[in-house]
Amino acid sequence: MTTSLPDRQEQLSNLEAAQEASKIFNALTDRDHVASFFLDMGCRLLKARSGQLFRLEQGKLQEEASTVVAQKAAPKISDPETQFLKKIFKNARPDILALKKQWLLALPLVVRSQIWAVAAFRLTEAPEKKEAIYTGMALADPAASAIKNIEFYQEKLRAQRMATIGQTISILSHEMKNRLGVLLGHAFLMNRRLNKKEWAAAQRSWSGLHEGLHELQEYVLNLLSMTRERQTVMKKTNLNQLMQKTVKEFQVKAKKKGLRLTAQLPKHPIQVSIDVSGLTSVLQNLIGNAIEACDKKKQSIQVKLAQDKEKNLHVFVKDTGPGMPPEVQNKIFNLFFTTKGHKGTGLGLVICEKIIKEHGGHMQCHSAVGKGTQFEIFLPSHLITH
Ligand SMILES: Nc1ncnc2c1ncn2[C@@H]1O[C@H](COP(=O)(O)OP(=O)(O)O)[C@@H](O)[C@H]1O
Ligand SMILES: [Mg+2]
Questions:
Q1: Which helix (DSSP H) or strand (DSSP E) does residue 229 occupy?
Q2: 381 CA distance to ligand 2 centroid (A)?
Q3: What does each C-alpha distance from 257 to 9, 43, 284, 296, 340 come to in angstroms?
Q4: What pLDDT digit, counting tens, does each position of 305-348 carry?
Q5: Residue 350's closest CA among 366, 362, 332, 365?
Q6: Of 76, 98, 214, 307, whose CB is crowded by the most CB atoms within 10 A?
Q7: Which residues constitute the domain of residue 193?
Q8: Both 268 and 311 in a single domain?
Q9: Which ligand is nearest to the CA of 290?
Q10: For the domain that residue 41 is a member of, what is the CATH number?
Q11: Dihedral over alpha carbons 213, 214, 216, 218 (to 10 degrees)
């Protein structure tokens, strides 16, 4: 009576430890980590010399992972042991093989009613069979279920990725088809006009063709700049001047639409080390979007540069245009999202965000329907040079 008491206590604490371990299994996101943590815990709780995880591939046992206590290499599995483990793969029942003062405890790891692997622990002492199996399975079952969850999650992720790739290809081919259609139209007209010797009209088709090709090139370059790791070339620049120059470039376009485009810049020059062409294209995209959005005369666009107490830079591009409803605003940084039909690409803001992130900054958008939209770019103070 008295001798069985410590054993019972030990069994209880083993079970408790197994339960604790199962919580940890669920927090792991990598199959290999689950396997090695399971083998470690198994060796500890079962007082095993080693733990190995085998999978059966084309009728052969393949070692998937191993943990060895106080020895250098994982032990070799003898022929009778191999037969024994293969039997476990067949009947999925835990068992112990006793061979010349050696005990091999085999535990099946069942994932979705199929054996995913069999764990083999070499025990140092003659085990109490039921207890060893009980403790072992208290670890093996949650480990198998954690592996099942990880595989399920990875499968879902793969499926999502495939769906995204499919969607991307579909959008891109659609876009290319449209653009190529326009180019072919110009080429067809040009050919006809040349044949009829209508030189002036042929010249117009030629201009259309040229413009279309230019736009296509720009589109492809934009796509490339998004997928490739851009080589950012940091250069010392006067940010006020860069902003002033970019605003000036858009003044004619704004005026044509009857819009007021102004810049509000600090009096003192702000010298920064930035990717000049990257930041210029961010401003061009934001100002371009604002001009495109403003649909009424007298609406205005303001570009502003300010500095906070910590010297961080804030660039604002603010318009009094139509603004965006929340459902549009939620999607504006999504690749290919556009409300401009065939006139938009949905690349602009994605590129802007990428460039700003490459500078260690971030961007935000505030918009209200009927009031307007404000984009704010935050650039960290360490970009400032003195
Ligand atoms: N200033 C703005 N006012 C209203 N809507 C805007 C503004 N800027 C961007 N948007 C919205 O964000 C969308 C995505 O912009 P962008 O990524 O530049 O792609 P694109 O200009 O090709 O549509 C636009 O289609 C538009 O709906
Ligand atoms: Mg745009």
A1: none
A2: 27
A3: 84, 76, 17, 8, 17
A4: 999 999 999 999 999 999 999 999 999 999 889 999 878 889 89
A5: 332
A6: 307
A7: 167-227
A8: yes
A9: 1
A10: 3.30.450.40
A11: 160
